[in-house]
Specification:
The protein has 302 residues and is of the alpha/beta class. It is built from twelve helices and eight strands. The chain has helices at 12-18, 49-66, 84-99, 119-133, 142-146, 150-157, 162-180, 192-204, 209-220, 251-260, 270-275, 277-287; strands at 38-39, 46-47, 75-79, 105-112, 137-141, 185-187, 236-237, 244-245. The radius of gyration is 24 Å and the shape is globular. It starts with 11 loop residues before the first helix and ends in a 15-residue tail after the last helix. The structure holds adenosine-5'-triphosphate. ATP binds at residues 79-81, 85, 111, 189, 194. InterPro entries: CTU1-like_ATP-bd, CTU1_C, Rossmann-like_a/b/a_fold, TilS/TtcA_N, tRNA_thiolation_TtcA_Ctu1. Keywords: ATP-binding, Nucleotide-binding, Transferase.
């Protein structure tokens, strides 16, 4: 972090005198030397490229230290999709690990959903990151885990609702990949936009309980406490695959069973299941619940 001159105890006159003359053009708010390259939405400060890199990396470091996110010797997998967010995450975490001696064993973990022309391209980026940052890469595919690629699923179910399969399978595939790598933690590049999107989608769907719970957690921030009187839900295990589940069968198994039996809409939205009484009975039997609720769309389930 480069302190603002005022933080360093300089008077306004000293700061004015020290300012390089630049014919009235504004200079970076932090270093007062270079031309600003951007206005940070977070602070509204106009800062240069170099200062942005510095404050961005140091803020992440402070967040890691203040919240004690890692312990020395831990194995950490980085969910690497090859997109911008996880690529930045891979770079920053490996850089901070080296710079500040966190002592972490880092890995890249990529899920290959089997989407031709999309994931195969981004996996090439991840393979470049593997070499660039010297991080071992593990690729786990839907085909290997579930016997289906997303291309095959789309062929069967069509373009509508396939996000449910993709999101549920990806979430579980990341967990399974993490277990294969025997890591202690898995980090992802979810950003504030992703979280806002999830909250807004829930509100638009009329699911008020979940967004308000998320907003409460965000608001209470660091003061978040669980009341001693609160009974925590018991974490069960899927009877079919052994993955964590609060139902008899986990969501991935319900969807997979539907696919394998040629009833791909089995585990999707409530209304579809209601359309067909046999499907409803089947689905309720598998989930052990009275209602089957599907998440129509989304990236990773929060
Ligand atoms: N196929 C994948 N393999 C591994 N990790 C993934 C995969 N897809 C998503 N993730 C993880 O989940 C995060 C959020 O995914 P999302 O699909 O919202 O993409 P995004 O916000 O565009 O991020 P990115 O730019 O990294 O793709 C990613 O940053 C990454 O850490």
């Amino acid at each position: 972090y480069l302190p603002h001159p005022q933080d360093a105890g300089e008077t306004t006159e000293e700061m004015e005198a020290a300012k390089p003359r630049n014919c009235g053009a504004k200079l970076c708010f932090l270093c007062n030397q270079r031309k600003p390259a951007l206005k940070r939405p977070k602070t509204l400060q106009q800062i240069c490229r170099e200062c942005f890199y510095t404050v961005f990396e140091e803020e992440i470091h402070s967040c890691i230290i203040e919240n004690q996110l890692f312990k020395p010797g831990e194995r950490v997998a980085i969910g690497a999709s090859g997109g911008k967010d996880s690529t930045v995450l891979a770079y920053v975490l490996s850089e901070l690990n080296r710079r500040h001696n966190y002592g972490l064993d880092l890995f890249l973990l990529s899920i290959d959903e089997g989407i031709t022309g999309y994931r195969d391209d981004s996996l090439e980026t991840v393979k470049r990151n593997e070499i660039q940052y010297g991080l071992p890469l593990k690729v786990v595919s839907y085909k290997d885990l579930y016997g289906w690629t997303m291309d095959e699923i789309v062929k069967m179910i069509g373009l509508k609702n396939n996000c449910t399969f993709c999101g549920v399978f990806r979430r579980q595939a990341l967990d399974r990949g993490a277990a294969m790598l025997k890591v202690d933690k898995l980090v992802t590049g979810h950003n504030a936009d992703d979280i806002s999107e999830t909250v807004l989608l829930n509100i638009l769907r009329g699911d008020i309980a979940r967004p308000s719970a998320i907003l409460d957690i965000i608001k209470s921030g660091e003061r978040f406490r669980i009341a001693t009187s609160t009974k925590m839900p018991e974490q069960g295990i899927c009877e079919r695959c052994g993955y964590i589940s609060s139902q008899k069968w986990c969501k991935a198994c319900v969807l997979l069973d539907g696919l394998n039996r040629g009833l791909p809409k089995l585990g999707i939205g409530r209304s579809r299941v209601h359309d067909n009484d046999d499907c409803k009975k089947e689905a309720n039997h598998m989930t052990g619940s009275k209602e089957v609720q599907g998440k129509p769309c989304g990236n990773l389930d929060f």
